[in-house]
Structures are given as structure tokens and as C-alpha cells.
Amino acid sequence: MLSAAQLTRLVGHVVPDGRIGGVDVLGGSLTRVRLTDGSGLLVQLASQPAAVARASAALTLLRGEIDLPLPTLRDHDADGTRIGVPYLVFDDLAGELLARVAPQIAGEPGYALGRRLGTVLHRVHRLASPGYGPLDAALVDSDARRYGLARADAALAALRAARVLTERESAAVARWFAASYQPGGRQAALLCGAVAPDALLVRRRDAGWSLVALLDWSAAQGWSPAWEHTRLLEAFGDSAYFDLRVGYGSAYDEATRRSYEQVREHALQPYRIIATLEALADARDAATTMRLRARLATVVQDMLPPPPAPGTTLSA
């Protein structure tokens, strides 16, 4: 949470004559600053400079999509020189984070909101990214298969080094990817990469809820829509979002005839495995490591070659 001094310094930079009338912490990294003239700002803190760079690059690419629910970027500081931490500032938007109203969206309201989200993200994915990889990267790959294999290999190397996976397990996963990972499409799609309940601003409208803005673009990248689906379904895995998940998949699949872009389990499988590998490599506590290790074990077991038959002599 930002201090009063930090907020005063920030508002003075963005709105030189602005005076703070009130502050509401919406949750996560988001703070609403109400100004005395009736206007306001949304301040989003970032964990690292790269997150600000990615968000800024994505919103620049999306600048012409005036009918999408996107925030208007007023200011950003990747280095954190102004207030001591990296941040982005948006014009204020009326609404609240979806995570706060989750119990109210069950049934038809959640389904309708999910359909809207599916339609919006399909539109986002129609935009081409400069290449495969994070938007802040100086060098990105131009080949989908090579990029996906590199992501898997990097995570496997980290897990071997940490002794989370054995050499045999790692080799089995690498062989599976080499044989099975055949992504469709030749152009990297722009992905938000961080669609989650605490990153969607929503507003009650009539009997349902409208999607006001996708706020978090800190993980924006170029890749396959299947990665977006994988991360989104994981983020909305709670039972409170069941109807939203159904609506999302339904609307997205209706929007494209390309099966490799649709929310289909066979298309998502490689990306689910990569997501689990990367999350496991980043895990910092025993409980998370055990949970992810158990999830991965069921997949890896199917990839391992069968043990030799009794009495078989293994070649050197």
C-alpha cells in the first residue's frame, strides 16, 4: 500500500493541480484515488520494471481498439524513480474487482460475463504480436514450436537443478514435447497473460454485470491463445466461477473455427504442462511444491517408458 506522501507526489506529477479527496484500496496492487474535483485515478503497482514495460507495450498495441474494455493509461514509471516503486496510472473507471463480488455472479450473470470475456479476448488475440515471447523482450522468437520447446526446456532445466525432477523424468517430458508439440498457426497472437478475478473491473448493470476493464497487462506476450485459456482457467478455477468458465469457452469457440485456438483440452494439454513446470520451478514453499509435484506426477508417469520385463538385460 502506498503512503500518503507517495500518493501526494504521484498525483502532483500526473495532475499538477489535483488534490486528493479520498483513497480506496481495491485489492491486490490496485488503489483508487478520488480527487476533489470529482475525477479520479487508478494506481497499479508493479512487482518489477519489466511488468510495467509489458503493460505499456500491450496498451500501445491496443490503442486503436476503442470499443474494447481497456483502461486509459495516464502515466507509468518502470524504474520506480518517482515514488520508489514501479507503477502505472489509469483514468478512474466506475466498478469493483470481480474477486470482491464473486458470490453474486453465479448462474446466468456469471455465464453472460464469461461470454463477454471470451468475445473480448478473441478480439485481443486477433492482433499480431511482434513475435513469440514477452512484449518487453529485446529479442523474441519467430517460430511457435521452437519457442514452446524452449519454454519447456528452461523449466525442466530449473527443476533438474533443484532436484525436483529426476533426469529420467525430465528426459521423458522433453521427449514427449519433441514428439507431440505441434502448435498451429504462424503468427503470434497478442495475449493479456494475466486475466484473473483480481484484475477484472466489473459493474452491476440491470440484473447482471458488465465488464468494465481488463486491468492487468503485466504478463502481456505473444504466443498461442491456448496459453491464455490455460492461465485463465487456472485463475478462475474456484467453483464460484464455474458459470463464467462455461460462458468463456462457449463464446470463444463460437468466435473461431480454428480448433487449435479453441478452448479444447487436447489443444491446451502442452500449455497446461508448461504452466505446471514453470509454476513448480517458481514455487517457494513446501505446500505449493508438493501440490504441483503431485499434479505433474500423474502426467509424467504416462510419459515414462515401461520398466523392463523381469529377466531383461539392459544394454550399457
Describe the structure.
The chain has 316 residues and is α+β, with helices and mostly antiparallel strands. The chain folds into 2 domains: 4-92, Phosphorylase Kinase, domain 1; 99-303, Aminoglycoside 3'-phosphotransferase, Chain: A, domain 2. The protein has 9 helices and 11 strands. The strands form 3 sheets. A 5-stranded antiparallel sheet has the order 1-2-3-5-4, sandwiched between helices. β1 and β2 (30-35) form a beta hairpin. The longest helix has 18 residues, at 108-125. It is globular. The N and C termini lie far apart (60 Å). The mean pLDDT is 92.
Low-confidence stretches: none
DSSP strand count: 11
Fold-level CATH name of the largest domain? Aminoglycoside 3'-phosphotransferase, Chain: A, domain 2
Derived structural class: alpha+beta
> How many helical elements?
9
* Average pLDDT number: 92
Portion of residues in beta strands equals 15-25%
How would you sum up the global shape? globular
Give the full name of the CATH homologous superfamily of the largest domain. Aminoglycoside phosphotransferase (APH), C-terminal lobe
Major beta sheet, specifics? 5 strands, antiparallel
SSE series? HEEEHEEEHEHHEEEEHHHH
